[in-house]
Predict the structure.
Amino acid sequence: MIKLLIAGFAQVFLVTVQTYLISKVFYPGVFIIGFLISFVWSWNVKKVAFGTMSDRIAYSLGAAIGALVGLYISHKIFLLL
């Protein structure tokens, strides 16, 4: 169950970071993160699609946490630049 939470976290963390990078028009970061999103997604889709309801809840909880942490870290990094 913790693996699904981490999987959801990783994917949505990356999506949030990419969204922030898009808003800053940072092309290299958008490209790299875009690749990583697709790579993580290719592993996650099978785990969640054939999982139980508790698997889906764990994945979704990780995704929600990933969104918050992704926004926080992206914002802090750009404040330093």
